[in-house]
Amino acid sequence: MKILMRKPNKRGSELTSTDMPALIRYSMRVRYVALGSALAFTNLPALAEPSCPGIHVDIQNIENSTGTVACALFESPEGFPAEFLHSATHIMMMKIRDTKARCSFLDISPGTYALAVIHDENMDGKLNTNFLGVPTEGFGFSSGAEAGMSAPSFEAARFSYDGGNLDLAIRLSY
User: Fold this and answer.
1) Would you say residue 20 lies in a domain?
2) If you write DSSP's letter for every residue of 52-97 in order, what string do you get?
3) Which single residue of 63, 132, 138, 158 has CA 20 to 30 Å from 170?
4) Which domain holds residue 120?
């Protein structure tokens, strides 16, 4: 950078050679602060941005991080909840991280749905049971539907979706 130095005139309106380094330091500080601020604001997470429209499901009460979580979204009672691989309209499977999982179903049409979730610890694609038929892996259903002597009905687990953002929480039972 080339700095032109002028002789001060009698009125003192021009900068002296001793003022120039201070002015340059000040100018550089302003630039660094502006650059630092710009970088800080561009790296902030988009907290005010809404999430994409869809059904967002937080899976709660996962006992361990072994295996996967399978979330199955049903539009009708057909196959609910046992035949999720064959009857569910949307299925998501994901690894569990630190006993946490979240399923997000995007681009879903408004309507009535029911949701079944399993903790597939051995990753065989089904809810394992003991010789009496009692589940040996975690499971849960939408709308707080609970399993008694058998799995809940579609009607017990159903919920309405209007096409916007819907946040659900499903608590697993073991």
Assistant:
1) no
2) PSEEEEEEE----SSSEEEEEEESSSTTTTTTHHHH-SEEEEEE-B
3) 132
4) 54-171
